[in-house]
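From: lab user (bench 3)
To: helpdesk
Subject: output format question, protein + iron/sulfur cluster

Hello, I'm new to running complex predictions and I'm not sure whether the block I got back is the full result or only part of it. Here's what I submitted:
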Amino acid sequence: MSSRDLILGRVRRALADVRRDDEQAVPRTYLREHGERNAAETVDLLAENLADYRAIVHRTDTAGLPGVIAELLAAHGSSSVLAPPALPEEWLSATEVTRVADRAGSTPHELDEVDSVVTACALAIAETGTIVLDGSPDQGRRRITLVPDHHICVVRAPDQVVPSVPLALERLDPTRPLTWISGPSATSDIELDRVEGVHGPRTLEVVLVSGDGGE
Amino acid sequence: MSGTFVGMPAFPKAAHEAVHNATLRGNLRHATHTIRAKRAKAVTEVSDWAELREAGKRIKDHTLRHLDRYLVQLEESVTAAGGTVHWAADADEANRIVTYLVKATGETEVVKVKSMATQEIGLNEALEAEGIRAYETDLAELIVQLGKDRPSHILVPAIHRNRGEIRDIFAKEMSEWGRPAPEGLTDTPAELAEAARLHLREKFLRAKVGVSGANFMVADTGTLVVVESEGNGRMCLTLPETLISVVGIEKIVPTWQDLEVFLQTLPRSSTAERMNPYTSMWTGTTDSGTADGPSTFHLVLIDNGRTDTLADEVGRQALRCIRCSACLNVCPVYERAGGHAYGSVYPGPIGAILSPQLRGTGSEIDASLPYASSLCGACYEVCPVAIDIPEVLVHLRERVAQGGQVTEKGAKVVLKPAKGHAAERAAMRAARWAFTHPAALRTGQRLASRTRRFHPRTLPGPGMAWSASRALPTLPAEPFRDWWQRTNGGRTEQGAADGARADGNGEWTGGGEDSGK
Ligand code: SF4
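Helpdesk reply: Thanks, we reran it on our side. This is the complete output you should expect:
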């Protein structure tokens, strides 16, 4: 007998007391979101929670975005920046920093040489201060937001901002590789002292971009 | 199960040794109290905590009650997404499968992300024996591995080490395993973390095979979820060409939507955060077009005592555990005895009910674990899936003391009352009153723990005598060490006189305030 059949057989015998038609529905009486906020307040909460977990938050509009990105790269002293394949051209239009494309053949060692990475995101969750990447072409492969030490993530606000975890899961596609990021990496393994930045990017900057230019 | 630490003394002896270690006690106390306070704050932030907890419990119960169906569904989903599913009945089989899979890649080293399942089966040792080196990449696991040590806490496995010790371990041992520690390394946490970053980075960048566990497996989509803080998990899950995930069969949730419960309760219960820094979710392999992440994915599903646990109608609730470690941090016994005393990778209250079920109560340590508790109920109160740990402890005590029918490796066997547990049998006789009055026992427990903030030093009625021994989690007047010596390791304190002390075998907590003599 295969181990598969062995284990499934054990499970069925172990559950001899359970009626096979016993289908109790799970009570989902918990909240879909906590509190009532309008769109602007939800974005404010996101900014607050991101900052609380030591992400650096910036706000701008569409027209101001290239300038902000250029400034952040300069302030970080970056000489190279990774760009996922479908990053909007104009985002990097104001910076002179060398643009590096992520090629299928790029080795982790090559990525380790790059100073910064700029990406979009799939969505952001206000209540938890989380950004979620789903590997879409404007975000790129998971590795590019992992190996460089400086990640700039652009969130379109308010349309990419959801209030809560339940509302986020509804909008995400499980077949895509997902990375949920809530602040830069951290450890409390040494006497519970929080130390930011162990293996992922040690600096996470989130740029909240409001609608169309004029706002 | 090969997870028993060889030569492990039974709980009382190991606990006795631990409490004499002042460093360990100090570290544990600091750590558990810190996390405990933070967790309470994180939980009060969500107004629907009780509803989330109930939903989490019900989702897990439903899954367990139909586990065969969800396992088959998971296998289909993972396979359809390009993964390969393997089934391992026990630790040896799981180790054989993983060793074979690693060898098939031609590699002789793997990077690992912290996984209790692989610790449980002793995977690192099994790989080592076959000439494959497994590098632990979680900072705490690295400290443990370099220090040739054992983990002592689910969440912060090196909690028993302070910064000076960690500095010494890094300075001395890192060069053995790869990039040496920087010259002049000090003991500031930031510098130690930086040393670990540099040491591990070269391993991540060259790694071809990653080994992980998983916090959740979603049956309807085939998605696996790993929740972490440091980014070492993302490294192991993303950079290698081959990923092997070793996961207990109970880690399933039926649907994608179910994650909405656990992704809210796990981080808050565990690290007391609204959300942990990184969560990775992947479904099989991504198509070759984007080449995002490993091109080969193996899922090894392990039983290793889980189906035996499932067969026990009372004990099966232990399989709901999402390994948040909240129960460790509130446990006064854990705080004093330390994780190592539990003789298993699962320490604290959850270990006390899980290990004797996964491994059976045949060994002295496993037979003694159900007694490693005061039944104060704090563990139940904080548990995000509402595992009634005191109920299972009492049930397992009964099993140890009186014997009875259990399932071992899928077969029903009848246990004799355990030899060498005369004290426990006596304790059980003393407790008969409580067992024949289960409602009284239960009410006493629940009231004592639920209202403990309101200072219920005593309860009315029969609960009075009972609750007199359970004024937890305040610190006992009598230190564990003194109590232990006075009572000969708990063997002479019967507390039987009042007939109401279910735990009359003499848990230390009662010692100070109600010696029972
Ligand atoms: S038993 Fe409950 S509190 Fe303890 S680790 Fe498991 S889920 Fe957490």
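A quick orientation on your result: The first helix of chain B runs from residue 11 to 19. Let us know if anything else is unclear.
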